[in-house]
Amino acid sequence: MTDLTLISREIDNLEKLACEIEESGLHLINSAKLNYKPDPPRVSSPFPKNHWEPLSSELQIIQRDAIRKYQKFYSAGLFFVKEFNFEKVDEFIDCYENKRSRSDQGVMDYLQFRHSSYSSDKSEIAKQFVGKFELQRSILSSIPFLIKIKEMNLREIISADFVEREIDESEYLFAKSHFRAAGALAGVALEQHLRALCDKYQIDYKKKDTIEPLVQKLYKNKKIDGSEMKKIQYLASIRDKCDHPSDINEGEVKELIEKVKKMI
Fold first, then answer.
1. How far apart are CA 263 and CA 174, in angstroms?
2. Less crowded by CB within 10 Å, the N or C end of the chain?
3. DSSP 3-state assignment of 50?
4. What pLDDT, on the 0 to 100 scale, is given for residue 106?
5. CATH topology assigned to domain 149-263
6. More confident site: 165 or 81
């Protein structure tokens, strides 16, 4: 299983870094000089006419720091996106830079002031910068949630496979008249099924919890009703008979197997 806690912590660190990058980027945009340079007489071009002047020495220091931080953010972020949200890779990369269009710049284009601007409104330029950066940040921030969903699905698959195998084995033992062993295995399958339900509904339980503690937790969290709880408790009582040196009833064991089989 993936270490969700570690990944969440790393993505939180990247988000903190992104806040610093955004703050520096906005400071650069608001502080840099943007001058309008019209076309020469009798010449009309479709190119942007608002041009950035070279940055001051002080702003260049801020720019260099912001670019270094963004390269770190982008490289680490791209790794996580490729690993856990591959369908968003192209969108994440497109937000880095855009070599095809001056009107749709990427985060690095804004930080390096690569292109002149169609707009002379710095607040609009800043809004576009933040919007492009936010796309990357939102893609990255969704990864812990996606990992959690995928791992829950994986646990369900593994649990369902385990339960199915235990029931198959239980039916085989029952057919061979090994009723006590068949009932014990069916009880194991029932217990695992209840664990899977707790995982699905994100209900905490202890590793040593057996059928009764698990069914109580499901009932208290309103995932099963009272009648369902009593049915499971009845099946658990049959399982207990199979686990201990007491008389067992062939019909009860058959009922246990059949009802657990219907649950999965």
1. 19
2. N
3. strand
4. 94
5. Four Helix Bundle (Hemerythrin (Met), subunit A) (1.20.120)
6. 81
